[in-house]
Amino acid sequence: MLDHPEEYYSHYYHYYSRRLAPKVDVRVVILVSVCAISVFQFFSWWNSYNKAISYLATVPKYRIQAMEIAKQQGLLRKAKEKGRNKKSKEEIRDEEENIIKNIIKSKIDIKGGYQKPQFRDLLLFQILLAPFHLCSYIVWYCRWIYNFNIKGKEYGEEERLYIIRKSMKMSKSQFDSLEDHQKETFLKRELWIKENYEVYKQEQEEELKKRLANDPRWKRYRRWMKNEGPGRLMFVDD
Q: Transmembrane residues, as ranges (predicted)?
């Protein structure tokens, strides 16, 4: 200290910063963070799922079907009889609405971003199952190479749809949300073959251009881009 008095305060700081630092295990911090993110994911997905059910309950096609099923099962009649003397009309209406939503939940399989949340899709479970998924992928990839690249087997329906999905650069949830008749069209047109997919892609681009050409909003946007342009600065002389 006598030789280097200018380093006194730096040593003083380093000593107490280490001594008074909170003794928290990094692993605990990571685990709590992952659990918090997983809880947020679950409630966010559940909220999206409930919004999708509420929307489907307003679509006449699904609402009428749900009401017919409820009438056949006598659920609407039971709700009215149960609340005839005890509940107000608004409460009975809410109960009937819940019955319709529950029927839609049980009869309709929602896929994609609004599907019913599953625990296995949460971050915590994805991390825990990561070694299993990695091993499964390695086994699947080796089988693919052996069966189709080495032995030259013909693709099955599942493999064809997989190649089509990869060509379209869609995630599994996005591809699963497509209608069955769309997937059948893909298979009929043999889109797992690269040349056929390129033709299909060109057709879709041409169709999109035609739709945009007839869209009044797109016409207004193009007219604005032509006349005004993005971020154009105008200087006016005084």
A: 28-46, 123-142
